[in-house]
Give the backbone structure.
Amino acid sequence: MMEWFAENPVLSGIIKAVVLFAVPMQIVPGLIYFERRICAWIQDRKGPNRVGPIGALQPLADVVKLLMKEDIAPKGVDRAIYVLAPALVFIPSMLAFAIVPVGMDLQVFNPNSGVIFAITIGSFAVYGLSFGGWASNNKYSLLGGLRSSAQMISYEAALFLALMSALMMAGTVDLNVVVRDQIAHGWNIWRQPVGAVLFLVASFAETNRLPFDLAECESELIGGYHTEYTSMKFAMFFLGEYIAMITMSALMVTLFLGGWSMPTFLLTIVHDWFGVAISFDQVTLGTMFWSIVFFSAKTSALLFLFIWVRWTLPRFRYDQLMRLGWKVMIPVALANLAITATVIVLMED
Amino acid sequence: MSVDLIPLVTFGLLALVVAVGALAASELLGPRRRDPEKLTSYECGVPIFETAREPFHIRFYLIAILFILFDIETVFMVPYVTLFRDLGVFGLVEMGTFVAILGLGLLYCWKRGALEWD
């Protein structure tokens, strides 16, 4: 089977792209269901439990409902930008996912620029939010759009600097090499704890999730940039947000949590229980399967963390958010980079 | 076109098709019952006053300009990060000077109150 893939690059490339596109698209409804169930569990109530067994068909019902709702564009909206905005939130988040290696050397596209591609494409999502806020011709939307664009660009600088610390350990931008370096020297979360924390916090802010959901702020901005959106346009913003959440978790796993690899003692457990010997020296079908399992397990754990934090922490105030971004995260990230570079250079000299 | 690009192009086209398809589907499937009240902007039910196309605070521009500086700085860091082991102490001093100047700039903005939000 591996030979067939190597011999038919065009067909296997298309199959790979379709499968890796379908997976996050299928995870999103599940994720929304789990988010609602987990939040109900944290708040000691029942959550969706009427549609299908234990409410599992609720996301499907929601999608059908959203499709059948009237699509309203209020007076005074800037029509072209108003329609473009939801797509601009969704497409960049999805494209950024293309470079994440979800299994051993398995990714849609491995550009020379590596992870820089994901950050560059992913940051286009800020246009979606600010366009949506501006085009709606609504004061709340305008405020939400402005807030979200200022927030996302502030934390993007910190995110980028935190990412550099992980890249520095491997000395490359190729994510597969970053993972191999972690197999050899241990996960980056142990070698770069400050970078890992900064990256995690910045990824919460980048995806507009609580405690940084200042752009939506249901209680003061009634939804912010998507106040005037209905039907599928409204749903598209959420699709984009959840895809961005998946992409950010996947990037975090790849950069700091060993990507598709696992420590040796867990490989021994897999060997004892399932009788499969895994070595990350060469790509075989078995290794590929287990690397995808490891990667999915770690990404799911991080997604759970995203949901858990959302229903546990209160929202920041806007000046606190900006203070944290510019006065704490960026200086700390710069100092972390300087110390890392100095230590590595002096040790190798 | 390089064979390597085929998966990415397929991926991008799928994203485009899903985005356009979903937006078109709701336009086609949803009912159409327009009335003038429904088409007004939402402002918590009270009559709308003034326009939403208002000037907004200069601070948002300031943040955007600062962001451009820091983003360009990180772009300069990418080649250094991949090569810093070969460049050794020389590269460390060069990059250190660059980052120090930028750090001073951040400190200057901080002292001048560009990062205050109240």
